[in-house]
Amino acid sequence: MRIILASLCVWLTAAVCGWAMPLTYALNESESRVGFEVPFGPDQITGTMPVRSADIALDFERPANSRISVVLDVGNAQANFPFATQALRGPRVLDASQFPDISFVSNTIEVRADAPSQALLTGDITIRGVTRPITLDAELFRPAGRALGEREQLFVRLEGAVSRAAFGASGWDDLVGDEVSLNLMLRIDLVE
Q1: Cα(138)–Cα(163) distance, integer angstroms
Q2: β partners of residue 54
Q3: Which residues of the chain have pLDDT under 50?
Q4: 19 phi-psi bin (left φ>0, alpha ψ -120 to 50, beta other)
Q5: CATH number of 21-190
Q6: Residue limits of the Lipid/polyisoprenoid-binding YceI-like domain (predicted)?
């Protein structure tokens, strides 16, 4: 009888844990983008960076169980004018030849009580081989025309800022500002 009861408890525990498991999503690269902006005198340098890979698992019942990691492709970063692109990838800023990736790995997700589709996402960002903590504003969207509660296709927007100097990417600091604003829009599809 004890063996049957123990087996039943293990099965029930496994079943309950299975219901609460995070949903795994794959990145839709063609509909995802990473934008950045940094002051350049009275103007702005703006640009984009391709997403090399993403690992996203969302637990809608227990957001703390969710995880997001994103790897960006520094070697294919583009700025709004050619000199800025060359400088961005060069050794005085991101040094793409030595550090081809920028990565972000989440640590905690805190959903806003007043806006369940918005959260604070804290984690670690690695730029030029230097890892520092970062907090990003996160928001979850469904594509237009999707029914309320549908989770097969989603957009995740992440916004925040980093100091270039904190990562040793301080080239041309007499011309270019230190704070870089980040704006990631990731289209994700549920993995069946």
Answers
A1: 19
A2: 70
A3: 1-18
A4: alpha
A5: 2.40.128.110
A6: 24-189
